[in-house]
UniProtKB/TrEMBL annotation:
The gene is hemL. It catalyses: (S)-4-amino-5-oxopentanoate = 5-aminolevulinate. Pfam families: Aminotran_3. Belongs to the class-III pyridoxal-phosphate-dependent aminotransferase family. HemL subfamily. Its cofactor is pyridoxal 5'-phosphate. The modification N6-(pyridoxal phosphate)lysine is found at K268. The lineage of its organism: Bacteria, Bacillati, Bacillota, Bacilli, Bacillales. Keywords: Cytoplasm, Isomerase, Porphyrin biosynthesis, Pyridoxal phosphate. This is Glutamate-1-semialdehyde 2,1-aminomutase. One of its GO terms (cellular component) is cytoplasm.
Length: 431
C-alpha cells in the first residue's frame, strides 16, 4: 500500500505539532513505530487516506462514531446548527431538549451539566464529590483511563499505558498522594483500601465496563460490593461512562448492569462526533455546583448549539433498538471468526467482547485486570496491527484499545476483516 503522502505530512507535522499528533494515542509508539496514516474522508464504515487508500475503520474516532462516519441525520443537524451561528454565550432550548433526552435514557441523572470533553466531565465529578463530602482522597482502578486531568493520571491505562507512562510527569506528589489505586475486579483490595483510608475518601472512580485496558467486564457482584462498601464509608461512587454510555444499548452501562452510582461522567457517543462531555447525578449532590453551590465549573463552549444538535441527532438514530441488535450480530461474527483464524494459525489469543466492542489480546490467559492486559504479547500485537493496516483494516495502534463496530459496518466488511486477519495471524506464526 502506497502511503507516501501520509509520510510527507507526518514529517511536516513533526516539525509543527508535538510528536506530530494532537493526541499521543494516534502516534505509533505502541506498535514498534511506523507512520500514522493521514485520513481525509470518512463515510459509513470506511476511512479514505490522503493517498487514496480505503480502510475498514474500527477506531470510530476512539469511540464516538457509533453510527458510522458522516451519518446523514447527524450531518444535517450539524449543518443546520452551523447555519444558525455556532455560539451565542446564552442558554438555548437545545440544551434543555438534550438534557431531557439524556435524563430519560439514564435515570440516575437527576440533574446534568454539559461540558466539552470526557476529561472535563470526570474532572468535575471528582471536584463535586470532594465538595460534597469535604474529603480529599479518591480511589481509582489501575489501568482505567479517565482523561488527562492531574489526579487521574496516576496508574492510567489507554494512551499513558501505551507510552509506558501511566504516572504522568508534571502531576505533583501532593496530587498523587490523594489517589489510591487498586486492581480492577479485586474487591478484597478495594475493601483494604477503604479500611486504611476510610474517613478521607471522597469517592471511588470506576469505568463500570472498562474500555481502556481493552474491554473488561466487572465480575458478578463487583460493582454491587463497591457501592455497599463505599457508601458505608460515607463516600460517593462515580461511574466514568465516557466510553460505555450508549455503547452497548440505548442508555448507560449502569442501566444494563442494574447498579447505580451517585455521579456519572459521559462523553464520546453523546456528542455524535463533536466535542462534548456531560456529568450528572443525584440532585442534592449536583446542587453543589455553581451557581447553586460552591463547587465551580464553567465553559465558554459548554452546551454549544452544534454539539447539542449533533448529540440529539445521534441519540435519535440510536433509539432504534435494531441498531444494537446489529452491533451484537456483527460483533459475534467478528469474535467467532477471529478466534477461528487464530486457532487455525495456532496463535494464542483471548477476545473480550461486549456487543459491538471487543479487544483481541495476544495471550492464552483470561484478561480481567490491567496486569493481565499488560502481560499480553506486544510484539504479536505490533505484527498483527501492521499487517492489518497494510491490508486496509484500521485498528487503534495500541494493545490496550478496543475495536469499535458501527451500525454502518456490513457483513461483507467483517468477512474482509477476517480474510485480512488470516494473513496477519500467519505473519505472527512465521515471525
Ligand atoms: C473512560 C474515559 N474517560 C475519560 C476519557 C477522556 O475523554 P476525552 O478524551 O473526551 O477528554 C476517555 C477517553 O479519552 C475515556 O475513555
Ligand atoms: N482510549 C482513549 C480514550 O478512550 C483514546 C483517546 C485518546 O487518548 O486520544
Amino acid at each position: 500500500m502506497n502511503i507516501q503522502h501520509s509520510k510527507e505530512l507526518y514529517k511536516e507535522a513533526e516539525s509543527h505539532i508535538v510528536g506530530g499528533v494532537n493526541s499521543p494515542s494516534r502516534a505509533f509508539k505502541g506498535v514498534s513505530g511506523g507512520t500514522p496514516v493521514f485520513m481525509e474522508k470518512g463515510e459509513g464504515a470506511y476511512l479514505y487516506d490522503v493517498d487514496g487508500n480505503k480502510y475498514i475503520d474500527y477506531i470510530g474516532g476512539y469511540g464516538p462514531i457509533i453510527t458510522g462516519h458522516a451519518h446523514p441525520h447527524i450531518t444535517k443537524a450539524i449543518t443546520n446548527a452551523a447555519q444558525s451561528g455556532v455560539l451565542y454565550g446564552t442558554p438555548t432550548a437545545l440544551e434543555n431538549n438534550f438534557a431531557k433526552k439524556l435524563k430519560d435514557a439514564v435515570p440516575s441523572l437527576e440533574k446534568v451539566r454539559f461540558v466539552n470533553s470526557g476529561t472535563e466531565a470526570v474532572m468535575t465529578t471528582v471536584r463535586v464529590a470532594r465538595a460534597y463530602t469535604g474529603r480529599d482522597k479518591i480511589i481509582k482502578f489501575a489501568g482505567c483511563y479517565h482523561g488527562h486531568s492531574d489526579p487521574v493520571l496516576v496508574a492510567a491505562g489507554s494512551g499513558p499505558a501505551t507510552l509506558g507512562s501511566p504516572d504522568s510527569a508534571g502531576v505533583t506528589s501532593n496530587t498523587a498522594k490523594e489517589i489510591i489505586t487498586v486492581p480492577y475486579n479485586d474487591i478484597e483490595s478495594y475493601r483494604e483500601a477503604l479500611k486504611s483510608f476510610g474517613d478521607d475518601i471522597a469517592a471511588v472512580l470506576v469505568e463500570p465496563i472498562v474500555g481502556n485496558f481493552g474491554i473488561v467486564e466487572p465480575k458478578p457482584g463487583f460493582l454491587e460490593k463497591i457501592n455497599e462498601i463505599t457508601h458505608d464509608a460515607g463516600a460517593l461512587v462515580i461511574y466514568d461512562e465516557v466510553i460505555s454510555a450508549f455503547r452497548f444499548h440505548y442508555g448507560a452501562a449502569q442501566d444494563l448492569l442494574g447498579v447505580y452510582p451517585d455521579l456519572t461522567a459521559m462523553g464520546k457517543i453523546i456528542g455524535g462526533g463533536l466535542p462534548i462531555g456531560a456529568y450528572g447525578g443525584k440532585m442534592n449532590i449536583m446542587e453543589e455546583v455553581a451557581p447553586l453551590g460552591p463547587a465551580y465549573q464553567a465553559g465558554t463552549m459548554a452546551g454549544n448549539p452544534a454539539s447539542m444538535s449533533a448529540g440529539i441527532a445521534c441519540l435519535e438514530v440510536l433509539e432504534d433498538k435494531q441498531l444494537y441488535d446489529k452491533l451484537e450480530r456483527l460483533g459475534r461474527k467478528l469474535e467467532n471468526g477471529l478466534q477461528r483464524k487464530a486457532d487455525d494459525a495456532q496463535v494464542p489469543i483471548q477476545i473480550n467482547r461486549k456487543t459491538g466492542a471487543l479487544t483481541l489480546y495476544f495471550t492464552s490467559q483470561p484478561v480481567k485486570n490491567y496486569d493481565n492486559a499488560d502481560a499480553t504479547n506486544s510484539l504479536h500485537f505490533s505484527t498483527f496491527f501492521h499487517s492489518m493496516l497494510a491490508q486496509g483494516i484500521h485498528l487503534a495502534p495500541s494493545k490496550f484499545e478496543a475495536w469499535f463496530l458501527t451500525s454502518a459496518h456490513k457483513e461483507e466488511d467483517i468477512t474482509a476483516t477476517l480474510d485480512a486477519a488470516e494473513t496477519a495471524f500467519q505473519a505472527i506464526k512465521n515471525s
